[in-house]
């Protein structure tokens, strides 16, 4: 997952609590299962990386949520580092020995963070109204996120890369303009993220990649011969009295057969209800 924008309203009493639009960018040769309820963890709704075994974004019937992006630092990559996707799946599957709250879980992750290549990890519990973030690069500690509209690409939270700034602003307008109260709100979020426009050269970050690669990766929706946006996920969590309603839509390049169709138009949708605390 390489671009996530989300709006977080932990004090909501009626209406939107959490709204997210996210693109997963990955090598086309890397196989994965699309969004589905896991057979070995029936309460988990997520895609699954069939190489590393973890996932990039998911949620549970109990109200847990997690998502991950890689931190772009090509000269620091270690091929022997453990897969980062298991940091997401560990929170979602909720082992008994695991900390109960997002912040406690991120503190545990921070203790072993140096073992991994660079990452951003967002962990939440919608019933607790808690959403936390941690990045294992720089002198950063886990923190609960304040109310507002945020974005993460392949640098720390809210780093003003052009695609992040643009999509964060578009999400804020959609949420504040009540466009998401109209029909097909998840489709609007997906369409927003399928944007192939690249940034100007003077706006590009310098992350150690060749200029042509930086240009290609500056698009929200990435298309290269070997790497690109493999799927877009939209999530909307709404409060309605004592209920929390969750809706999810994924559009991807894989219908479950692991044959890639570009650009992807296979859709999976799900919805479920939580009991608010």
UniProtKB/TrEMBL annotation:
This chain's protein is named NRDE family protein
Species per Swiss-Prot/TrEMBL record: Paraburkholderia dinghuensis
- Tree of life domain: Bacteria
